[in-house]
Write a structure and sequence with these properties.
Chain lengths: 202, 783
């Protein structure tokens, strides 16, 4: 199941500072709920893990993250991530491009486009659930990103989280997904509206 | 035929369903209600991938969980020669995967634990390592010579399963070529699922002390399943007892043998305790027998007056990973060749190719007599396209081409002999009831105002009651069916059948047949089905075969009893047999009606005072081999209004005129029609088991696979005509499936008709509001 998710947000920090943060996967990962970098393979490749819990189902993806393109001039980054669930419940891959634009007020706008491809249990739950999960994950990501950016470089990049990946809150995800499900009948015009800019591709 | 009193309740009486008393009180006994001492629980581990190499299955963590008793893998089954099992279509299917998995949710391991929760938790702990392989979800791509070969176990190294054809190819091609008017439709009958409210499941109980295996299971065909268990598992058939308790809907879904049953049996054989396995809703939707998935093309020709000349049908059938279609062995595309429908065509040719894809196996007959729904939908769709081409009223085009009532028995160009029919009468009744001319006027006025209203007609012919032994068998077993009727000394009866009700009301209808034939009140007749230890052998209930086959067996068995009863009556009345007259419930002496013996008195005498030399008792068995199938028919008219703002289709009216020959219980028949129409509506507007390009199921829950509810269902306006079957002992035909077979075309024809002036000629099901709204937008009429 392929899902394309477009998100953008603004931060009140200069674009160069934001770029320093965004172009370093070790820093960015601290803002991704449930994610962790376990090993740096080479300059642009990392091994990592992410745990996603939806309702009763926990999926523990282990895999690789690779920076395929890093354009410091244009402030663009393209990341490719691939992982398999450790217990064989499925796999996921994601291509994410991030672009920074300086804003007139001195802040910066972050625009991300993620193409997510999920196989297995999570995909069976339908793209409405994946969209909801991504919305919640993104919300958390954005808050953490802003916070850690403000806090400065020292606090922002711990080498690894001591307690391992923490799954995204199941309760809120399940509730949002349920809410989304009961308020529509599966017809796509509604679905698109409810999910804002994000949509799905077949 | 004699008319019985309401007290007797023979044919034609709408007596209340005997079984409902327990169902409405919540006292049914379904398989999940079976709880045996020491029973443990099984849970399947399923593949998340649609196509992947199976590298390892690690069970140690799961086995370490307290309460886990056993974990069975494909490798374990392979050692016992049970990793694969035969399907009903001459293919084989993995019980638990070895080597690779071929569809998402395929069975990989079976966990047995002391309770359900532990079994579910342990299944999560089984670690399976996969290596993803390229996935095929499009049957057209399966035929590409470069496509990956899905079934490496076969000698044939491609994804093609079968080619089947019937009819006159050159004659059809010539007629099509020469005809001045032609119409064509590419229609995809989507993959849908019977989705019975009760999912599949079983309790397998191997008693090591007696050596007997009892399997309580959701089976529409308990006897056939017993034989297959014996043949595949090597257990002596006398040591196997299959019990189908109450079944909460089958619709063809409970005809195949699924891996879960086999695993539960293996687990019980291994552990020596009863093992229960019950599917979840998603497991049922994702892994058990789907229906349809037919990519069909129909071309039809006619002369300028609208007289049809030829029909050519080409179909690509997606059977999924294993060919597990449940159908008579000699018919790889079922009875799809009924696709000439109600029309008298000089030439016809039909071909079907089956292919493998990375989808769940199946191709079962969902409320349908083996691919008849696909056929009826296709012909009724293409006839509408032809009407559009001819600019002719679709009702008039149909009427002009109907097989005339005088032509029965009618030999169709694709080889069937239709037993009886009067299509014009059924259509006239439906058109009158709907007020067709008024509706046409209304539509014209609405179109002037820019409003969208459509009228859809479907004049379908069904083929049910498989079937005559000369051509119908399933894995070699002929498709007869049976009744064993015993009359007790006090005149009450016990009737045991080879069929198995899943909600059709057998306990009532069979009792009414006995009542009709013997005059014993239906209330005094107990009908029992589903226990292979007690019931006579039969092929079970699907394809609307219960009334045509077992119903006939019941009538014949009752007549055998009546013959014996006549002898006893003659003895009791001291008259000769020839001097006796029968009326339901008694024999009397011609011209002296007071000199009579009731069937109850005769039954008592059969045990207490039989004639010298006569065998005691009053019972009979009949194994009925039908001389032909039965061909129910009808005309459905659907009226829809379309909301231009939302694309929502509102079914305003639905008129259904059915003809199923002589009717046993009109209320039950009407109930069957209501249910079948509701399912047809779901298929037409709401349902599809879809797959994404990775083979992820997109209809694996009731959030995605929608069932129609009271909100969507319109008021069904039912009516009937009666054209008895000439060969059935009661003149009856099957009915349960007609509404599901005939209605999808009526719904779709109505929607297409509402949009036909915009140039729309076909829309594939399910016709969702989204689909309609997009068409409206494309045509520039969205409000």
């Amino acid at each position: 199941m392929a899902v394309k998710i477009e998100k953008s947000f603004q931060v009140q920090e200069p674009v160069e500072k934001v770029w320093q943060f965004l172009s370093d996967p070790r820093k960015v990962v601290t803002c991704v709920p449930g994610a962790q970098i376990t090993e740096q393979v080479d300059e642009r490749t990392y091994k990592g893990a992410i745990s996603v819990k939806v309702g009763p189902s926990v999926t523990d993806y282990r895999g690789e993250v690779q920076i395929v393109r890093l354009d410091a001039q244009a402030h663009e980054i393209e990341i490719l991530g691939k992982g398999q669930d450790v217990r064989g419940k499925g796999s996921a891959s994601m291509k994410m491009t991030g672009k920074l634009t300086a804003l007139p007020d001195g802040g910066a706008e972050v625009v991300t486009v993620s193409e997510l491809n999920v196989v297995g249990i999570l995909a069976q739950m339908g793209n409405r659930v994946i969209n909801e999960v991504s919305n919640i994950m993104f919300e958390k990501f954005m808050n953490d990103f802003r916070q850690k950016l403000q806090a400065g470089p020292d606090q922002a990049a711990p080498e690894s989280q001591p307690s391992g990946p923490k799954p995204v809150s199941a309760v809120s995800v399940a509730f949002s997904a349920l809410k989304a499900a009961v308020t529509r009948r599966g017809d796509k015009p509604d679905a698109e509206e409810a999910n804002g800019k994000s949509g799905s591709e077949k | 035929m004699h008319k019985t009193s309401p007290e007797i309740g023979g044919m034609g009486h709408s007596i209340k369903r005997k079984e409902d008393l327990r169902f409405i009180q919540g006292k049914g006994n379904y398989v999940d209600d079976v709880n045996l001492p020491g029973m443990v629980y099984g849970q399947l581990v399923r593949s998340p991938y649609a196509h992947a190499r199976l590298k390892s299955v690690k069970t140690d963590k799961a086995k370490a969980l307290p309460g886990v008793l056993a974990i069975i893998t494909g490798e374990d089954l392979a050692k016992a020669g049970l990793a694969w099992m035969p399907t009903l279509s001459g293919d084989k299917q993995m019980v638990l995967a070895t080597g690779k998995v071929l569809f998402q949710s395929q069975e990989v391991a079976f966990v047995v634990a002391e309770d359900r929760y532990t079994a579910a938790d342990a299944a999560e702990l089984v670690e399976v390592e996969y290596e993803e392989l390229p996935v095929l979800v499009d049957p057209k791509k399966s035929l590409d010579p470069k496509a990956p070969i899905l079934r490496e176990d076969r000698e044939q190294k491609d994804n093609h399963i079968f080619h089947w054809e019937v009819g006159d190819k050159p004659g059809t091609e010539k007629a099509l070529h020469d005809a001045p008017v032609k119409a064509k439709v590419d229609a995809f009958f989507q993959r849908c699922h019977p989705a019975p409210l009760e999912t599949c499941g079983c309790v397998a109980d191997m008693n090591k002390a007696t050596g007997r295996l009892t399997v309580h299971m959701t089976s529409q065909a308990p006897h056939a399943h017993r034989t297959l268990f014996a043949l595949v598992g090597g257990i002596p058939e006398n040591n196997i007892r299959v019990i189908s308790p109450d079944i909460g809907g089958g619709f063809g879904n409970k005809v195949p043998i699924y891996p879960g049953y086999v695993c539960a049996i293996v687990a019980s054989l291994t552990l020596g305790v009863p093992v229960k396995w019950i599917e979840t809703r998603s497991e049922n939707l994702m892994s058990t027998g789907f229906a349809r998935d037919y990519h069909m093309t129909a071309e039809i020709s006619a002369d300028k007056s609208g007289r049809m000349t030829a029909l050519r049908v080409k179909t690509l059938a997606d059977h999924g990973a294993f060919n597990a279609a449940a159908q008579p062995t000699k018919f790889p595309a079922g009875l799809f060749s009924i696709c000439t429908g109600s029309y008298d065509l000089a030439h016809a040719f039909c071909e079907v190719d089956g292919v493998y894809t990375n989808k769940a196996p199946g191709g079962i007959a969902y409320r349908c007599s083996f691919r008849v729904t696909e056929a009826a939908y296709l012909i009724e769709r293409v006839v509408d396209v032809l009407a559009d081409e001819l600019k002719m009223d679709p009702a008039e085009l149909r009427r002009k081409n109907f097989i005339p009532a005088s032509a029965f028995p009618y030999k169709s160009p694709l080889g069937w002999t239709y037993d009886s029919g009067n299509y014009e009468a059924a259509m006239k009744k439906a058109l009158d009831k709907a007020g067709y001319q008024q509706l046409l006027k209304e539509q014209e006025e609405k179109r002037k105002k820019g409003e969208l209203m459509g009228i859809g007609i479907s004049s379908f012919t069904e083929i049910v009651g498989a079937g005559p032994s000369h051509s119908f068998d399933i894995v070699g077993i002929k498709m007869f069916d049976s009744c064993e009727l015993r009359i007790h000394p006090t005149g009450k009866a016990m009737c045991r059948m080879g069929t198995k009700s899943q909600g059709q009301g057998h306990e009532t209808t069979y009792a009414q047949i006995v009542a009709q034939e013997l005059g014993i009140p239906a209330a005094d007749v107990t009908v029992e089905e589903g226990d292979t230890d007690t019931a006579p052998y039969g092929l079970g209930t699907y394809a609307s075969r219960s009334t045509p086959v077992s119903g006939a067996a019941t009538a014949v068995a009752a007549r055998k009893i009546r013959d014996k009863a006549r002898k006893i009556a003659a003895h009791l009345l001291e008259a000769s047999e020839q001097d006796l007259e029968w009326e339901p419930g008694k024999f009397y002496v011609k011209g002296a009606p007071a000199k009579a013996k009731t069937i109850q008195e005769i039954a008592f005498a059969a045990y207490t005072n039989m004639p010298q030399g006569m065998e005691a008792g009053l019972e009979a068995v009949d194994y009925y081999d039908p001389p032909n199938l039965t061909f129910p028919f009808g005309t459905y008219i659907c009226v829809v209004d379309i909301d231009k703002g939302t694309g929502e289709v509102k079914v305003r009216r639905f008129v259904a005129v059915d003809d199923c020959g002589n009717i046993i219980n009109p209320m039950i028949v009407e109930g069957q029609i209501h249910g079948g129409l509701a399912e047809g509506l779901g298929i037409a507007f709401m349902q599809q088991i879809d797959y994404d390009e990775n083979g992820n199921v997109q209809g694996g829950t009731f959030m995605d696979y929608l069932l129609p509810t009271a909100v969507e269902i319109p008021n069904w306006e039912t009516d009937k005509t009666v054209t008895p079957s000439p060969h059935h002992p009661l003149g009856a035909k099957g009915i349960g499936e007609s509404p599901n077979v005939g209605s999808p075309a009526a719904f779709v024809n109505a929607v297409v008709d509402a949009l036909s002036h915009l140039g729309v000629r076909h829309i594939d099901m399910p016709i969702t509001s989204w689909k309609v709204w997009n068409i409206l937008k494309e045509k520039g009429v969205a409000g």
